[in-house]
Specification:
4-stranded parallel beta sheet, alpha/beta, 11 helices, globular, Rossmann fold, 299 residues
Length: 299
C-alpha cells in the first residue's frame, strides 16, 4: 500500500499517473469498484477537503468512517500514533489526516500497515491540493511546461504554497511568490519574490492565498492588504486575457480577491473544488492499489 504524506514523495511519473487517473474519472464520471475502509481524521475545520475526500471514497465504493475528534480518546490525551495503531488493529485501510502540526514528523519512526494521506499538516504540506491545482492548470493550458505561476499572499504560513512549489515545478512550471515581506518564508530563499503589479501583466497563473490569521500573531489591516497585495479590480483589468485566477479557499472577498475576480471568466476557483473529488479518488485508489505497474483507469 502507498501513502501520500508529502508532495516530495511524488516524482514526475507518479504525479502524471495521478493526474491522468483523475482526468479519466472526471471524463467518465464512473463509480469505483474498490474494497476497503477509509477513516477521515480531521483535527482542523475543513469544508472542501473533508467533503471531497468523503465524496471520493463514496464514488470509489469504499466504506467511510468519520472520526469524531472531540468525542474520541484523543481528547483524553491519546497520541496520534496510538490512535493510528488502534485504527490499524480495527482493520482500517486508509486514514486521511488533517492536523495543525507537522504530523508526519511525529510518525517518522512508526511502522504501520495502513495507508496515510495528508489532508493538511500545519503550515507544511497539502499535497492533494497541489495535485488538484496542477490538474486545473493542465485542463486549461494542456501542459504546465514553461508556464509562469505567481503565488500571492501569506507564503510563510502556507502549506498550499509549499506543496504547489514542488509539484508544479516537477511538471515544468516556473513558480514565483509575491506578497508582504513579513510573509516571506525563511526556508525557501531560492524562490523568486516578485512585484505583484508587474506579475499580473506577465503571469499565466495567478494563485491568491488566504491570510491565515490563525497561524500568526501579527495584525493585518484588511483594507491596506487588499490595496497592496490583493487582486483588486484595477489589477484584474491588467491581468492577461489568457491567464487563470486560482484560490485554494476559503476566500475572503475584499481581502485577497475582489468579488469581480471571483465572477470573472478567468476564475478557476470552482473548477478547483470540483477537481478535488477526482484527484482524491485517484489518490485513494493509488493508495489501495499500491501504485501497481503505473496503473491507469481504463479509457
Amino acid at each position: 500500500m502507498n501513502s501520500l504524506v508529502s508532495s516530495k514523495d511524488l516524482g514526475r511519473h507518479t504525479i502524471e499517473l495521478l493526474l491522468q487517473n483523475a482526468q479519466a474519472y472526471a471524463d467518465k464520471e464512473q463509480m469505483g469498484e474498490n474494497h476497503g475502509t477509509v477513516v477521515h481524521l480531521f483535527f482542523e475545520n475543513s469544508t472542501r477537503t473533508n467533503l471531497s475526500f468523503q465524496m471520493a471514497a463514496q464514488r470509489l465504493g469504499l466504506r467511510t468512517l468519520n472520526f469524531d475528534v472531540d468525542h474520541s480518546s484523543t481528547s483524553k490525551g491519546e497520541s496520534l500514533r496510538d490512535t493510528l495503531e488502534t485504527l490499524e488493529a480495527l482493520g482500517v485501510d486508509v486514514v486521511v489526516i488533517r492536523h495543525k502540526t507537522d504530523w508526519p514528523k511525529e510518525l517518522a519512526d512508526c511502522k504501520l500497515n495502513l495507508s496515510l494521506v495528508n489532508a493538511g499538516s500545519g503550515a507544511f504540506e497539502h499535497p492533494t491540493q497541489a495535485l488538484l491545482d496542477a490538474l486545473t492548470i493542465r485542463q486549461r493550458f494542456g501542459s504546465l511546461r514553461g508556464l509562469k505561476v505567481t503565488i500571492v499572499g501569506d507564503i510563510r504560513h502556507s502549506r498550499v504554497a509549499r506543496s504547489n512549489l514542488h509539484i508544479l515545478t516537477e511538471l515544468g512550471a516556473h513558480v514565483q511568490f509575491a506578497g508582504p515581506d513579513i510573509f516571506k518564508p525563511h526556508d525557501l530563499p531560492e524562490v523568486p519574490w516578485v512585484d505583484l503589479d508587474k506579475a499580473v501583466e506577465e503571469t499565466e497563473v495567478l494563485m491568491m492565498l488566504r491570510v491565515q490569521h490563525e497561524r500568526h500573531a501579527e495584525n493585518t489591516d484588511i483594507r491596506t492588504y487588499h490595496e497592496q497585495y490583493g487582486l483588486t479590480e484595477e489589477r484584474l483589468a491588467r491581468l492577461r486575457k489568457e491567464a487563470v485566477i486560482m484560490h485554494p479557499g476559503p476566500v475572503n472577498r475584499g481581502v485577497e480577491i475582489c468579488t469581480a475576480a471571483m465572477e470573472d471568466p478567468r476564475s478557476q476557483i470552482l473548477r478547483q473544488v470540483s477537481n478535488g473529488v477526482e484527484v482524491r479518488m485517484a489518490v485513494l485508489d493509488w493508495c489501495l492499489q499500491g501504485g501497481k505497474h503505473g496503473k491507469l483507469v481504463s479509457a
